[in-house]
Amino acid sequence: MRQELIDTIKQAVKLSKTDIPLARLLAFIEVESGGRGFAEYINKDGTKTTKLIIQFEAGTFSKATGIARSKDNNWAWDENVVDVQSKEWEAFNEAFTKVDKVKAMESTSWGLPQIMGFNYKQAGYNSVGEMLDDYKRGELQQVVSLIKFIQNSSKLYKAVLAGDYEAIASTYNGSGHRALALKNGWKPYPDKLKEAEEKYKSVK
Question: Which residues, 6+ apart, have CB-to-CB distance to 177 below 8 Å?
């Protein structure tokens, strides 16, 4: 993880006056987003744009809108899987402009912590739009909201303080996280967290 981000996370810890271990928070962010809150894109006209890192969840959007998923739909949002950021944004933009703006924002995970938009209240905001406006301001705001998100869930907060990686994974990513990892050939989320935290234990 780049030093600039480590310093930003330290600042967020200080501002939030949290007792979450720094190494655990660093691990959380590395596993969720690879330590990137933003990415730079090259537009068709050659200009560059910086946007938030996202993951558009087509299944969540389908459930929220009541629009059944089908291969015959020929929609970018419906075909979306875990993919490169350009395709994530293509899917999101289509859902946002052609179907439902709010539900598109709520059906997407955002920035460093990859918090789903529908969790805006737990992350400390009055609306998903307010959350995204704040996230666009910088990575410090994103880390502060992650700390709020953790502390506003007694179950997650307890698991994080205890270093219970299995409980953290189940609470943050759902009880099916191991089955999903096995299906896709990924390393299980708890193992990723544990390894990342070990790497950052010397950071003070």
Answer: 169, 170, 188, 189
| Tokens read off for 61 | 């959007």
pLDDT of residue 79: 67
Instruction: Yes or no: say if 144 and 12 are a contact pair by the CB < 8 Å rule.
Output: yes
Instruction: Say how far apart CA 44 and CA 112 lie, in whole Å.
Output: 26
First vs last C-alpha separation in the chain: 14
Q: 123, 148 in Cβ contact below 8 A?
A: yes
Question: What is the amino acid identity at position 146?
Answer: L
- What is the arithmetic mean of pLDDT over 99-107? 97
In the beta sheet, which residues pair with residue 40?
Answer: 50
pLDDT digits (tens, 9 = 90+) for 133-171: 999 999 999 999 999 999 999 999 999 999 999 999 999
